[in-house]
């Protein structure tokens, strides 16, 4: 009887052997933790649609950020909940806006933590769209000025990285010019380059209060069936001065991450979005899946596809599992 010479199982025989030949491992250094900041004092309010996710006031946000740093997570991505919304999203670029105040407090309280700010108008506009409306449509070029002002105000407050998520054409160039003209040449841009008009954003829109009051965002976010177009978006953003490009969502767009990794030689971020997170939490609560194993498998698949950094609401859980030696 003939036996195989090449036995792939040899290197799978024990946990130590498997770890020795493992091709991809998710590390805490790969993770970015999204956080929501709101007005008020001593606020830590559970988001009803996202287990384990909260609205923080600036004081509690700083305490949360200190815990994040202590756990070994290197960066946070900050979203603001304004006190008042208007047609032009004025608090997004106000010097005393919620994000601007929060960034100053964070850089004072936890200076070594990387603070990334989401740059968009949707949380701040009364209509919930990502730009200025004209005749029921988002006016691209008019919006660029406000997006650039928002990014500049974040840099002035001390943000380490600005991350435009609006998907307006030319926004990276507008932001780069505004930053450079004001002396912020060292502030990187993490662009939401391939951001798809996805159904997986639902829980986030509840958390941020940014669901559109009419229509949807399909006229400016990418159409989910499109693959080649994503590389064009990424290429254009790099030509305009992006330092990091992002694919969002992550789990249903692993092919886009892989394409990007094969095509560009810059850091790639992937956003493991709210809907992906909540599906795991809901299934785990019902006992249908092992939350830890499923989470690690999902994050590993994102890294295996080519992401250098992963934005995920699972970051603290992952850090606790790491600390407890469960990974």
Summary keywords:
single chain; 327 residues; alpha/beta; TIM Barrel; ten-stranded mixed beta sheet; 11 helices; 12 strands; globular
Description:
Helix 3 packs parallel to helix 4 (140-157) and helix 8 runs parallel beside helix 10. 39% of the residues lie in helices and 17% in strands. The protein has one domain (24-323): TIM Barrel (Alpha-Beta Barrel), CATH 3.20.20.70. The protein has helices spanning 15-20, 58-71, 98-109, 140-157, 171-181, 202-208, 228-240, 254-263, 274-285, 291-305, 315-323, and strands at residues 31-38, 44-46, 54-56, 75-81, 114-119, 133-134, 137-138, 161-164, 190-195, 244-248, 268-272, 309-312. By secondary structure, the chain is α/β, with parallel strands linked by helices. The mean pLDDT is 96. Strands 1, 2, 3, 4, 5, 8, 9, 10, 11 and 12 form a ten-stranded mixed sheet that branches. A two-stranded antiparallel ribbon has the order 6-7. The chain is built from eleven helices and twelve strands.
User: What's the quaternary structure here?
Assistant: single chain
Beta-strand residue percentage:
15-25%
Segments where pLDDT lies below 50 for 5+ residues?
Answer: none
CATH topology description: TIM Barrel
Residues in helix, %: 25-40%
Structural class: alpha/beta
**Gyration radius over CA:** 20 Å
Between the first and last Cα atoms, what is the distance in angstroms? 41 Å
In the CATH hierarchy, the architecture is Alpha-Beta Barrel
Principal-axes shape call: globular
What's the structural blueprint in terms of helices and strands?
Elements: H1 15-20, E1 31-38, E2 44-46, E3 54-56, H2 58-71, E4 75-81, H3 98-109, E5 114-119, E6 133-134, E7 137-138, H4 140-157, E8 161-164, H5 171-181, E9 190-195, H6 202-208, H7 228-240, E10 244-248, H8 254-263, E11 268-272, H9 274-285, H10 291-305, E12 309-312, H11 315-323
Parallel strand pairs: 1-3, 1-4, 1-12, 4-5, 5-8, 9-10, 10-11, 11-12
Antiparallel strand pairs: 2-3, 6-7
Helix pairs in contact: 2-3, 3-4, 4-5, 8-10
């Amino acid at each position: 009887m003939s036996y195989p010479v090449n036995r792939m199982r040899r290197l799978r025989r024990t946990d130590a052997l498997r770890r020795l030949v493992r091709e991809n491992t998710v590390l805490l250094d790969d993770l970015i933790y999204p956080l929501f900041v709101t007005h008020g004092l001593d606020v830590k309010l559970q988001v009803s649609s996202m287990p384990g996710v909260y609205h923080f006031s600036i004081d509690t946000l700083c305490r949360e950020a200190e815990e994040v740093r202590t756990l070994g997570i290197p960066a946070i991505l900050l979203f603001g909940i304004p006190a008042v919304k208007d047609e032009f999203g004025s608090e997004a670029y106000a010097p005393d806006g919620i994000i601007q105040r929060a960034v100053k407090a964070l850089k004072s309280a936890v200076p070594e933590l990387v603070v990334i700010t989401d740059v968009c108008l949707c949380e701040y506009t009364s209509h919930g769209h990502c730009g200025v409306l004209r005749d029921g449509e988002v006016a691209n070029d008019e919006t660029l000025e406000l997006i650039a002002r928002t990014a500049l105000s974040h840099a002035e407050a001390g943000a380490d990285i600005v991350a435009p998520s609006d998907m307006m054409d030319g926004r990276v160039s507008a932001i780069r010019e505004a930053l450079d003209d004001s002396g912020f040449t060292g502030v990187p841009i993490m662009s939401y380059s391939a951001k798809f008009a996805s159904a997986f954003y639902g829980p986030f829109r509840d958390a941020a209060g940014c669901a559109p009051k009419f229509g949807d965002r399909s006229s400016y976010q990418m159409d989910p069936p499109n693959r080649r177009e994503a590389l064009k978006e990424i290429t254009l953003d790099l030509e305009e001065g992006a330092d990091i490009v992002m694919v969002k969502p992550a789990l249903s767009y692993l092919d886009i991450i892989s394409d990007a990794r094969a095509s560009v030689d810059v850091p790639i971020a992937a956003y493991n979005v709210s809907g992906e997170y909540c599906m795991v939490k809901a299934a785990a609560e019902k006992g249908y899946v092992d939350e830890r194993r499923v989470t690690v498998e999902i994050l590993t698949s994102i890294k295996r596809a080519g992401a250098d950094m992963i934005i995920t609401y699972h970051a603290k859980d992952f850090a606790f599992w790491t600390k407890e030696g469960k990974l």
